[in-house]
Input
Amino acid sequence: MSNSTKDFSVSRRRLLKGLGLASLIPVVSACDSKDSSATANLSAPSPTQAKAGRVLVIGGGFGGATAAKYIKRGNPAISVTLIEPNSTYYTCPFSNLVLAGERNLDSIGHNYNELKEVYGVEVIHALAEDIDGANQSVKLSNGQTLNYDRLLLSPGIDLRWNAIEGYDQAAAELAPHAWKAGEQTLLLRRQLEAMEDGGTFIMSIPADPFRCPPGPYERASLIAHYFKQHKPNSKILLLDAKDNFSKQGLFTSAWQELYGDMIEWVGLSNDGRVVRVDAANLEVETEFGSVYKASVLNVIPPQKAGFIADRAGVSNEGGWVPVNANTFESTQVQNIYVVGDATLAAPMPKSGFAANSQAKVAAAAIVASLAGITPPDPYWANTCYSLLNPDYGISVAGVYKAEEGQIISIPGSGGLSASDAPTSIRQAEAAYAVGWYEAITQDTWGS
Amino acid sequence: MKNYGFTAFLLLTAWAGSSSVWAESAPTASHPSTQVALMASSCANCHGTDGKLAGAIPAIANRPAGVLEAQLLAFKQDQQPNTTVMNRIAKGFSDEELKALAEYFAHIGQD
Output
């Protein structure tokens, strides 16, 4: 449990009013920063802040960092404290480029300096261990207990160890999941580099719902790109616990076009579901007893909301978090808002973009709630780019609103890249994927 | 730092003042600018915070409202050749919403 607890997602934002206000925020923040030489100290909220309210944000990924920033943009007088164990957050988006050797890990790392210095968010690098929703308090691994008026959780996912027999934390050191970016990404990259030409890379892919629905297939594509250049006799075998996957037609036709028969996909109906892992021997066994031996084995296990959601009492029996569609407040515990991969927010996918978008809605709802006014109507968007190689991009997009308490995809909007698009469009989407990464990471962690 | 702190104090006071005025003037309904700001925040994921980031994807802040609105409508109506994703996104908004978004971004100054 311990090494799987720090991951996060969420999102939404607002300017309360007019743009004059936005230009004031950096100046106010210079005063509010927790720099010990500053006249104001966020650990002891000023009278103005105490009146405006205190918000704790747990998790510094796409959801949590966006929420912290946009709450401060909405009302800088609100005290916002972000609780996140790590000083650098490595994004899952673009980590597949690290696996393919096209980027280094540093290029997907983001810190909290601008949230602190520009927006006046207090950041505590500790693990949130427990939540008392009745008393509105959070207990941290550093011994502190903090009270809140509103709590925003962006806990990301936990991996369900042993949901596949034999796949636990020790096994993940031999057969990485790399479904939380960082050391796991580097481990899998080293294994791919060490693999002999002619080897077999096997990936076990879970049933829905799981983080980043197109992610496994982009990973297969970019590893194929690496193999094609450096280990052209190698194979990629995808063992999948479902029969359909995100952008399936676009992926499979591009695989044929770009990589011939290098990638083989086996779905549920063809006995694709892995039920046992022997990490020491790099072997997997499927439901009906087929055993496959890998040169490099990547197991993406089933998932659930990060454990702190259970501690807060906001998760359901399925392990995910139901939320009020209009605000992303928990339907189970008042004054706790939850965003990102941990939530049940279909038809929105579990993506970093969706987490950022949800965080902005939740931030607006929190700002309005603390001011005692009605929150604005929610809007969400999502665009997930996938790279088939560094110059070949595809996407799926969606625009969403709430209708009668449900999140709905707005009819006629969204959808997939055209199946018959020319090379120039694939190249443009690959360039836009890079532009998207720069923009969303700036919008989430930057200023 | 002390001067900064003093300036910040004045601004905070000013902010607190405008905040209460705002709350009193709109006790039951969402403020229109808040509503548009929330809708517009979806754009930041690709165009940067406040639509100001210029890279592979262009900035959209501080461009004439009429230009932005015409562009958004062209996306929505599939009249813009070689579009990748904006046609799919623009169809998620009414013409009035697209106009409000265009006006919102037109009024954001670029640093």
